Every structure is written in structure tokens, then in C-alpha cells.
Amino acid sequence: MTTRKTSARETAYVEMRRRILTLELRGAQKIDEGALVASIGLSRTPVREALHRLTAEGLVEADARGGYRVASISLRQCRELIEAQHVLVRAVTQLLVERIGDEGLERLSEAVRAVERAAADRDVAAVTRTNAELHILETELTRNSYLLAMAERVYTNLQRLAFLSFGGDQGGAARLGDIDEHYDKVHDDHWEYIDALKQRDRERAEEVAVRHVKLFQARLTRYLSEADGAGLDFSSLAADAQVG
């Protein structure tokens, strides 16, 4: 495959993925391939190849009437994502405490700084992207390819939920009125986690990792129940995931 073909396919994939994760393309929305081809400025082949790749990631699905549509996220899937995240952070922490070295710690520190820069710029899309990249990097540093595949799928799908709960669909306007406080807690958790890894303190690192999941879980639950969920019961999503 030529470099030009590879570049076209990657360009289509990156742009379509961005539109889905920032809700320019909404869940369950029918994908108009012709409109995508015209707006991205590429031929139909790389766009279709990108659709196949996004389908494998769970962001796009085949439409029963033909073509593709953006995958929606149900309440059950929200719950499953949070449960998977609880399981994932425990496994990742156990391996990181044993395996991470100075170079890995520095890479994590730079990834945390990237999240902080995005938050300071009030760029919700960048916050959700850099935060996902940070947690995927944590998993990459375990040197376990199976956990990495799981992390890429989990954190990719969580990005859409984070974008909503952080007010990305409102042009970055504060959602639920406490975004700065939330970001402060996020940053504190990130740095404390790195410190616990440096100290090889598995118990403290796991405690921070689980607390971090619960922080997002609580915000997501508030968003679902207060912002868009009038009359629906999301109480079970707020319950702690039952994992050992």
C-alpha cells in the first residue's frame, strides 16, 4: 500500500473518529457516506475503510437497512463501561507497580501535564482526548497486549460520555456548575497515582485508581439524571461496581 493511500485512510479515520467523539455525529445517526466524502475531501474508498475500522472499535455499526450508523450507548452499556473500568484499573495498577520504570513515570507525568493544559484552555474535546490517552498509556506500560486492547475500547467509548458530562456539547460551558472543582480532583488523583507508583505502594495506588473511576462515575450519573434524564431512574448506575 502506498504512503498516499495510507495517509488518506488515516485522515478519514481520524476525522470521522473526532466527529463521533465530539458528538458532531450523534449516537444512532445514519452516516451519509456521500456527505462525508465531500466534507473530508477524499474518495469513497478511504472513507469506507475508516468506517470498517470504527466498526471494529464499537463506534460505528451496520444499519439494518444498509450502510452505517453511529453506535449509540445505552444505560446498560454505560453501566458495563464503568464496571469494565473498575476491573481494568485494578489489573493495570497491579502490573504497573511491578513493572513501571523511570522512563514510564516520566511519560505518565507528561501525559498528566497534557490533561492539565487542556483543562486550563477550557478545551473539552482536548480534555477528554488527553485523559483517554493518559489512561491508555498507563495500560500500554503494563506491557500486556490483552489489557491494552481492552483499555483502548473502554476509554474510547468513555470519551463520548465524558464530552457530554463536561459540557462539550454546550461549547465548553460549565456542566452541572462545578467543572473547575472536578478538574482539580482529577489532577490531584493523577499526580497522587504517579506518586504511589513511584513508591511501589500498590494499596494506595489502587485506592486512588478506584476513587478516580468513582469520581467520573458520580459526574456521569449526575449528568444523566439531572441534565438529560428527567423521569428516568439511573440510581443503579451510581452503585459501586461489584468487582473483587
UniProtKB/TrEMBL annotation:
The UniProt record lists the keyword Transcription: yes
Ranges where the HTH gntR-type domain occurs: 6-73
Keyword annotations from UniProtKB, A to Z: DNA-binding, Transcription, Transcription regulation
A UniProt-annotated Pfam family: FCD
SMART domains tied to this protein: FCD (SM00895), HTH_GNTR (SM00345)
KW Transcription regulation (keyword) present: yes
Source species, domain of life: Bacteria
InterPro entries, sorted: GntR_C (IPR011711), TF_FadR/GntR_C (IPR008920), Tscrpt_reg_HTH_GntR (IPR000524), WH-like_DNA-bd_sf (IPR036388), WH_DNA-bd_sf (IPR036390)
GO molecular function, one term: DNA binding
Protein name: DNA-binding transcriptional regulator CsiR
Originating species: Brevibacterium ravenspurgense
